[in-house]
Amino acid sequence: MEKREYQWAWLMVLPVVLVVAFSAIIPLMTVVNYSLQDIFGPDSRFFVGTEWFVQTLRDPGLRDALGRQFLFSGAILVIQIPLGIALALCMPRKGPWVSVALVLLALPLLVPWNVVGTIWQVFARPDVGLAGVALNSLGFDYNYTGNTLDAWFTVLVMDVWHWTSLVILLCYAGLQAIPDAFYQAARIDGASRWAVFRYIELPKLKGVLLIAILLRFIFSFRIYAEPFVLTGGGPGNATTFLSQRLTTMAVGQFDLGPAAAFSLIYFLIILLFSYVFYLTILNMDRGA
């Protein structure tokens, strides 16, 4: 009887296994296959072993793009996580303004990524864009197409505008889940606003912050469309991140083998750092 139920259980999960195999495992194995071959055509390919991996790891362009990627993701986390917490704390907890605030916060998340790049390309133009003209009229020599610092500043501000709402909404949901009894006890004890945040709200937000940090790290590490539309990776290669370099290699140069090896290294970096983030925050939670 138990054996028959065990077989039925496997039959019930079989559709899920097939969907996962079709959507993830088969494409991944295809990339692994390409990364081990030198492909000249449909019937002309040669096994090269780990040659493409060695070549990719020695590529100075990859190392530069990786450095820029870490710098960008680190800056995004440093800016967006504290800003998201602060704005979530300022949001109304009850009343009609709650719905208004939630709708306004959700709007940037609904804008497609390439449209975000187009919006900021126009908005930040130094000749006709509202932000670009305003900065130059204030005395700043602003030009994101020709100055590296201006380009980085614009890409960072664009990403903060686009994605901080996600952090705010997650933190707001976490704050709303805190029982009123905690706040009543704090009022009875005469706790200050900072003490309430430090000893009640922040510990209760740890689970939500773990999700927010992981999502923002993964999304920022995969960024492509917004900076590509805004700056094209320039000036020079100043805002060329890993995904754009990979696209240039795979589509622009049609180097399928090196691009496949690059893709696997890219995927493993995201997987490794996501796991490290997860373990770090988990250990912090245990040590608290």
Architecture blueprint of SSEs:
Elements (H helix, E strand, L loop, with lengths): L1 H34 L1 E5 L2 E4 L3 H7 L2 H31 L6 H14 L2 H11 L6 H8 L10 H29 L3 H10 L3 H12 L1 H16 L3 H7 L10 H11 L3 H32 L1
Antiparallel strand pairs: 1-2
Helix pairs in contact: 1-13, 2-13, 3-7, 3-10, 4-7, 5-11, 7-10, 7-11, 10-13, 12-13
Question: What is the CATH domain class of the domain at 71-253?
Answer: Mainly Alpha
Range of strand content: under 5%
Q: Structural class of the helix and strand makeup?
A: mainly alpha
Helix percentage: over 70%
The CATH homology group name of the domain at 71-253: MetI-like
For the sheet with most strands, the description reads: 2 strands, antiparallel
In the CATH hierarchy, the third-tier topology of the domain at 71-253 is known as: MetI-like fold
Counting DSSP H or I runs of 4 or more residues, the number of helices is 13
User: What overall geometry do the principal axes of the alpha carbons give?
Assistant: globular
Please give the alpha-carbon distance between the first and last residues: 48 Å
Order of helices and strands: HEEHHHHHHHHHHHH
Global mean pLDDT = 86
Oligomer: single chain
Number of strands: 2
Lateral arrangement of strands in the main beta sheet: 1-2
CATH architecture of the domain at 71-253: Orthogonal Bundle
List segments where confidence is low: pLDDT < 50 over at least 5 consecutive residues: none
